[in-house]
Structures are given as C-alpha cells and as structure tokens.
Write a structure and sequence with these properties.
- This protein has one domain: HUPs (Rossmann fold, 3-Layer(aba) Sandwich).
- The protein is an alpha/beta fold and 231 residues long.
- It starts with a strand and ends in a 5-residue tail after the last helix.
- Strands 1-4-3-2-5-6 form a 6-stranded mixed beta sheet, sandwiched between helices.
- It contains 9 helices and 6 strands.
- The longest helix has 12 residues.
- The protein is globular, with a radius of gyration of 18 Å.
C-alpha cells in the first residue's frame, strides 16, 4: 500500500529509496530531499525492507516499527511517498523483485534506484542484476569519504562511481543514462550503526540530542519510547 508524506504529482522520474532503516536518520532524509529537488524527479518513494536476505544481520527494531519510523520522517513532505510493498511479500526482500513489481504498476515513468556510493561498486553483482538494471537506473548518492575510482576510464565515466565494464548486459544507450544520473553530496557522515551504538551506550536518554545523533526529533521520541536500541 502506498502512503503519501504530503501531496505528490505524477509526472517525471520516480526515485526509489529502499533500506532497512534501522533506524531511519537525517542522512536518509537529506538524500531523499536532494533527489526530490532534482528538476526531473517528481517523487521519492521510500521502500522499507520488511525481511532482509538471510546472509545479512537481522534488524534490531521490528519491521512494523521501522515502517512507522519512515512514516514519521516523511510526514508533511510533499513528494515523499511511503510504499510498503515489501511488507506484502513472503520471504526475504530483493531489490529486483521490488522494482519489477513497481514497474508493472507505473505509467512509463523512469525508475531510479537510489544507492549510496559505498554500495555502488557492487551494484552489478546484485541478485538478478541484468534484469534489475534494465528496468531501473542506479542513482548514486555520494557519501563522505567515498571517492569515485576512475580505473583510467575516459569522461564522463571518470568521475562516476559506476564503470561500463561492470555492466556488460546493458547496451550503450542505457549506459549513457546511467552516466547522466547522480546526486550531489548532501549529508554528513551519519550511519544507522553509529546511532544504534550511541543509543545502546547512553545512560540518560533525557539528554540525548536528535541533532547530535543525526535523527529527526520525532523519530528519536518514537525510538526512545519503543526501547528497541537500549541495552
């Protein structure tokens, strides 16, 4: 089911922001806002992961709590859309399955999958990568401390986090689309794992600062009330 954080129109490309969001933080919000401000992007669809693949560490907060965090973070922002599609599917959530489902419901809009620069180098090896990247275009969000690796490639790829030889299964015209889409660096170095550690080690939750942790204040209130990250 799709829920709107605010009003949304139906023109232009749609950016898809998937994640475990354990917890959601200001870095996620800043990246989503950066995408939303792109003149060719009409909406950002947040897609919380309900059940992650078995080879990854299980989330700390339960699935419904993580979904609620995203609702809180997106509340009131026009163009933010929460899609709980992965909560209505059995088994672990894979990006390829999610994108295929969204593509069947779209009206021909360009689909962009937002990915952090630290994960960009592995995109070509994701599950069902050939099918996935012939449907969606990766939209890389630069992260502090993660620099492009040119591998001696000519422009425009030399400043990109993606490399043509990693995607032999797409044609040259699609590769040009890959090169055209990238977000500017926007967020400070914020990570969910650092936030979980800070919450776990805190002795006085009344003194916690949402700004210091890098979490929207309403999300912090929800997290403290839930108690999932306290030791």
């Amino acid at each position: 089911m799709i829920h709107h954080g605010g009003d949304s129109n139906n023109t232009g490309a749609i950016a898809l922001l998937g994640g475990v969001f354990d917890p959601v933080h200001q870095g996620h919000v800043d990246i989503a806002l950066s995408a939303l401000h792109h003149p060719q992007i009409s909406a950002v669809h947040w897609i919380p992961c309900a059940r992650i693949p078995h080879h990854k560490s299980a989330p700390i907060a339960p699935a419904q709590a993580r979904l609620e965090m995203v609702h809180i973070a997106c509340s009131g922002t026009d163009g933010f859309v929460i899609d709980d599609i992965e909560y209505h599917r059995e088994g672990p959530s894979y990006t390829a399955d999610t994108v295929k489902s969204i593509a069947t419901q779209s009206q021909g809009e360009t689909l962009l999958w937002i990915v952090g620069a630290d994960n960009a180098r592995n995109l070509a090896k994701w599950k069902s990568a050939e099918e996935l990247w012939n449907i969606a275009i990766p939209l890389v969000a630069p992260r502090p401390g993660v620099k492009p690796n040119s591998r001696g490639a000519p422009a425009p790829a030399e400043s990109s986090y993606l490399h043509r030889e990693d995607f032999p299964y797409i044609d040259d015209s699609r590769w040009q689309l890959f090169c055209q889409w990238q977000l500017p660096p926007v967020s400070a170095q914020i990570s969910s794992s650092q936030i979980r550690e800070s919450l776990r080690n805190s002795k006085d939750f009344d003194k916690l600062s949402a700004e210091g942790l890098g979490i929207p204040s309403a999300v912090l209130d929800f997290i403290v009330a839930g108690g999932w990250y306290q030791s």
